[in-house]
Amino acid sequence: QVQLVESGGGLVQAGDSLRLSCAASGLTFSRYIMGWFRQAPGKEREFVAAIGWNSGNTAYADSVKGRFTIFRDNAKNTVYLQMNSLRPEDTAVHYCAAVVLRFGVLPVQVTEYDYWGQGTQVTVSS
């Protein structure tokens, strides 16, 4: 079965960087769009970034544009989220998600993804 396992979360100070990883198994990784979402306490899960089959096709939420970078290594079945200039408002559980490749705009809605990881906590102190 499909498994997505996130890692790399932690407690950091504002302005620091973190790199999240999501290792996928049970699927042909290069045939999937990968996304990162996050959910803060009391809030709905929200889109952060998505990537097509290669790093040339990406999308970002306005709140992270210019600070976060999503990229993938298809040989390692892994997608990454490099997070720089972290802010307290980035504090959330971060999830990776997968959906089969399709043409058109990269999906940004929770309901558009079929597979989810268990999440990794990112906490940014001020």
Provide a quick synopsis of the model.
This protein has strands spanning 3-7, 10-13, 18-25, 32-39, 46-51, 58-60, 68-73, 78-83, 92-100, 115-116, 120-125. It has 126 residues and is an all-beta fold.
Note the topology:
Elements: E1 3-7, E2 10-13, E3 18-25, E4 32-39, E5 46-51, E6 58-60, E7 68-73, E8 78-83, E9 92-100, E10 115-116, E11 120-125
Parallel strand pairs: 2-11
Antiparallel strand pairs: 1-3, 3-8, 4-5, 4-9, 5-6, 7-8, 9-10, 9-11
How would you sum up this structure, described in words?
- With 126 residues, this protein is an all-beta fold.
- It is 0% helix and 50% strand.
- The chain has strands at residues 3-7, 10-13, 18-25, 32-39, 46-51, 58-60, 68-73, 78-83, 92-100, 115-116, 120-125.
- Strands 2, 4, 5, 6, 9, 10 and 11 form a seven-stranded mixed beta sheet that branches. A four-stranded antiparallel beta sheet has the order 1-3-8-7, with no helix packed on it.
- Strand 7 and strand 8 (78-83) form a beta hairpin.
- The protein is globular.
- The relative contact order is 0.31.
- The model has no long low-confidence stretch (mean pLDDT 96).
